[in-house]
Amino acid sequence: MTKHDTTLDVGIGVQKNLKSKTCAPLPSSETIQNALFASQREVWYVDSNGDGLPFKVDLIKSTDKYIQLQIIPNPLNPSAPKSFIAGMSGALVVFNGTPVAILQSSDVDSPTTNALRLDFIRNQYASIFLVVAPSRTVAPPYSTDQLPEEYKTIVLNARKTKQKVIDVETIAFDVKRKAEDASSIALQYPKGQVVKGYANFDAENNSNFYSGEVYQVGVAYGSQGYGVSEVRSGDAIGDKFYCRYERDKGCVGYGFLSYQVNPDNEVSQFKSWAGGFSNGRHGYGHEVWKSPAGAEAWINDQDIATPGVWKEADGRLYEGMLLHGWEGKGVLWDKEGNILFVGEFSKGKIVKDETDRIR
Predict the structure, then answer these.
(1) 265 and 172 in one domain?
(2) What pLDDT digit, counting tens, does each position of 254-282 carry?
(3) 206 and 62 share one domain
(4) Alpha-carbon span 123 to 79, nearest angstrom
(5) Distance CA 105, CA 89 (A)
(6) Which residue range is the domain that position 247 belongs to?
(7) What mean pLDDT comes out for the span 86-107?
(8) What is the largest CA-CA distance in the chain?
(9) Can you give the pLDDT at residue 88?
């Protein structure tokens, strides 16, 4: 965490000796002059919430009245300096922790802007003082340190799920490769004939077509080992399972499922699944969605909501409870790793916003 211990703003009063617990004395002219040679130069903008946002600056030149600055774009606000100069006149200029000037309005198309020195202003008003504002904590991207403990635990568990899925996905793609190899061998032989432990045939009343390794008992045979099964009827027509098959159990362990290979069938929302199988997809896996396009999730597929990670095509990242989408407590981040929402979600939408609980 990057912590700015003190955020300062400037106040101008019409009465001398104005006192407040939020006020601090103005630095002397000597202190301001010495600070102009400092290496750490910032302009502090205090927003409507009282938070201070720093922008780095370079000193171009200095006079007894003005200093000329070039504002460096800050990753917290990439649109600076134009938006900064346009709307933040009056912001405090701080060199090595010493307030030295107040930013003035300027031409937004100019790469530089002027700031009025505080020691020059001192003699122009009855009273001038510094206002101490709340400090701002700038967290690293996707940092859990800023979250309430309950949500921190949920996010960390979601990340554990993703790591487990990454490990499982490696196994699933290895199974897919072996299944494709077995299918390729089986398809070399006539349909319905077992040759050297391989075959391709219609199964389950012609609702599926299988090609790969098989068992054979007398004239009977069936899928057993690595192979590919394609759905040939129903809403799931075109789905392909790349798996290791066990006799009378179907696809088991880990494998790959390609949804709706048939481009004319738009029933499925999914594009693919790489992960666990037990009487259908089950357990840890990586699912890629066809609708919404580009979305993907790392989940533990159960009958209840479990922690997982969901990434949108636009870069937003949800870490929290998942059940066919965002379902339960979680955190939504923007593509830069900043928090958008903390709270409870249902069907992909925030239903209880607890973002104000962020530390």
Answers:
(1) yes
(2) 999 998 755 555 555 788 999 999 888 89
(3) no
(4) 35
(5) 5
(6) 149-357
(7) 70
(8) 107
(9) 58
Dihedral (CA of 219, 223, 226, 232) sign:
positive
Position 26: which residue type?
A: L
- Sign for the CA dihedral angle at 169, 172, 174, 177 comes to negative
The answer to whether residues 111 and 157 belong to one domain is no
Tell me which DSSP letter residue 356 carries: G
Give yes or no: residues 169 and 246 share one domain: yes
Nearest to 121 by CA among 43, 57, 66: 66
Q: Evaluate whether residue 144 is within a structural domain.
A: no
Cα separation, 355 vs 218, whole angstroms: 66
Residues in the chain: 359
pLDDT digits (tens, 9 = 90+) for 183-203: 999 999 999 999 999 999 998
91 contacts 103 by C-beta, under 8 angstroms: yes
Sheet with 127-133, strands from edge to edge, namely 7-13, 127-133, 23-24
Domain count along the chain: 2
115, pLDDT greater than 50: yes
Distance (Å, rounded) from C-alpha 300 to C-alpha 79? 40
Is 221 within a domain?
yes
HSE, CB side, 13 Å, CA atoms: give it for residue 163: 6
Cα separation of 336 and 76, whole Å?
A: 9
Same domain, 130 and 154: no
Degrees, nearest 5: CA angle 158-160-162: 75
Query: Final residue of a domain: which of 84, 117, 138?
Result: 138
pLDDT at 104 > cutoff 80: no
Q: Which of 173, 128, 138 is nearest to 55 (CA)?
A: 138
- In DSSP notation, 318-353 reads EEEEESSSEEEEEEEE-TTS-EEEEEEEETTEEEEE
Domain check: are 348 and 216 in the same one? yes
